[in-house]
Amino acid sequence: MPALHAEGVTAGYGRAPIINDISLTAELGTVTTIIGPNGAGKSTFAKTLVGILRPMSGRIAVNEFDITRVAGHQIPRHGLVYVPQNDNVFKRLSVRENLEIGGFVSKGDPAARIAELFEIFPDLAKAHGKKAGFLSGGQQNLLAIARALMAKPSVIILDEPTAGLSPAYTSVVWDQIARIAQLDTAIVVVEQNVERALKHSDFVHIFVAGRDHVNGKANEIAALDLAAIFLGRSSASPVV
Amino acid sequence: MTYYVFTLVFFLFDYFILAMGLNIQYGAAGILNFAYIGFVAIGAYFTGVASLPANTLGQQYILGLGLPFPLNTLIGGLAAMLLSVAVALITLRRLRTDYLAIVLISMSLVLYDFCNNFVSMFNGADGLYNVPEPFAKTLGLSVNSFIPFFACVAGVVALIMWFVMSRVTRAPLGRTFRAVRDDHVVAAALGKDVFRMQLKSMMIGSFYAGIGGGLLIQFGGSFNPTAWLPGETFVVFAVLIVGGAGNNIGMFVGALLVETLLIHLPAFLPEIPGHPGLIEYFDLAVVGIVLMLMLWFRPQGMVPESVRRAASFGASERPDGEADDLELGTPAAPARVAFESGDPQ
Fold first, then answer.
1. Which of B177, B193, B199, B307 should be substituted to probe chain A, the one whose Cβ sees the most A Cβ atoms within 10 Å?
2. Which chain A residues are Cβ-neighbours of B93 within 8 angstroms?
3. Are B175 and A131 an interchain contact pair (Cβ–Cβ within 8 Å)?
4. Once rounded to an integer, what is the mean pLDDT over residues B12-20?
């Protein structure tokens, strides 16, 4: 049973579709990454998955439960949590308060869950009483990911979690993503950095001009002529 | 002298209540309610018509229940809260930030014109007067002794309302308000119903506005449209900004500095020879200047919002061993958290 299954999703702003007929499946314990040039519709697709945008057509299911018409704020209850690209923490709340907010839909003990997450993210434990706005960009992204984990979701959608980060901290974030996936979670990442996406992902989708141009296992995608694909040329042939 | 001092004390407590109401809306939930004075007015009017008897010579109004304090004041608070539900249903679902503020200030003007011209509701431009003074007959209070007495009553009410508001802001509900304020998209992505949260904040804040208005009409015995010109909202905003948005103690400090010292105290200062009333005309100008200076030099206010750790997190679990409350800096404050792994940024 796939944790996330999107089929034939078309969505956009107003009447004009930005993404067309996109399908994606994510299994528990895997990292699926969506890459593509600017304006390809990666973030639009992520926003559609989490209910910020309503799909014009298609179907989205989490653990086989249809969430296509579920209100955005109800979707986390069904096991899908979204981490936006920028400004993704509550800057004037403490690290701990941010985590507590994330536990809103969780039935378990929030304090126990926070203790578990502090073991995964020891840096956050040290800063638990600090205002989130005082953290650096990378630390804020880790806090946003940790907060998403508070709800013990089946699926986490990360919209460019390494945007604007230094190379060193980008590695820290990707390492954590891989570690979280091993905790029986399906992770869908929207990413600009092709090299890192291919290195850390199990499956990759390449969006071009609002369409899922190519998809497959990361090692298979790595063998393709990605420059040609990014430039919109239909090429699924390996680089010679 | 007693009259002057206790009048100032009354306005201190009353504006403390009003500022706490605006604080839960703007300081906590981020709703820029430029119609706030309208909710104060509805609270005052409904307290008035709940206090006045069914028929009073020369006045036209609805209800006329002749209820005693505090029932009349509670009706004022509930009326303001009900109005906030109607306003929220119209505005909060689709509007945010500046658009919401523009619509709210427009609604305030509509409400003002309605109350001013629909005479049979609250006696139109003449407003309500001869509103009974609470306990004055029972305790045999004179005009002079009523003022200190009611200032103390307002103090007790303010204390109770501060206690309740402190509990609300420290509870998960208050934390959720602040999350919605900081980023409503992220809050919704984490399972929060943003509209419902903002509606709750509007209702609580408007109830406080209504209670504050109710005390106001009973203190003065009258209330008419000149008392709540839409610009009066900005005096409450000045109290909030000077005191420190997001902090209830800051609201007391703001009420003391702005409402008591800058707005009402000048009315009791000696006149400038040859220029009667000149000092009073300058009060709003001084408030405006103070507001600009605060926004420029100390935007977090005199008593900034604090970060509160959860009570469940014991001292032994705190690796840094710091105090419970940390002062928040300005949004531009630099990162100062040292991380073990070291963030190269």
1. B307
2. none
3. no
4. 95
**Boundaries of every domain in chain B:** 2-269+279-309
Q: What mean pLDDT comes out for the span B305-322?
A: 43
Each residue's pLDDT tens digit, A33-61: 999 888 889 989 999 999 888 899 999 99
Instruction: Give the sign of the dihedral formed by CA B98, CA B101, CA B106, CA B107.
Output: positive
Cα separation, A131 vs A90, in Å, equals: 9
Q: Which residues of A60-81 are buried (b: 16+ CB within 10 A; e: fewer)?
A: bbbbeeebbebebbebbbbbbb
pLDDT for res B103:
87
Give the pair of three-digit tokens for residue B246.
């997001």
Q: Are A210 and A40 in contact (CB under 8 A)?
A: yes
pLDDT at A81 over 50: yes
Residues 270-329, chain B: which have Cβ within 8 Å of A?
305, 307-310, 312-313, 318-320, 322, 326, 328-329
What the block records as the tokens of B105 is 């200030």
- Give every CB contact of residue B102 below 8 A, 6+ residues apart in sequence: B34
Give B140: exposed, middle or buried? Use CB within 10 Å, 0-12, 13-18, 19+. exposed
**Beta-strand pair A203-208/A211-217:** antiparallel
Model confidence at B104: pLDDT above 80: yes
Of B181, B309, B319, the CB nearest to A96: B309
Average confidence (pLDDT) over B101-105: 86
- Global pTM reads 0.76
A130 contacts on B by Cβ (under 8 Å): 307, 326, 337
Q: What angle do CA B261, B263, B265 make, to 5 degrees?
A: 50
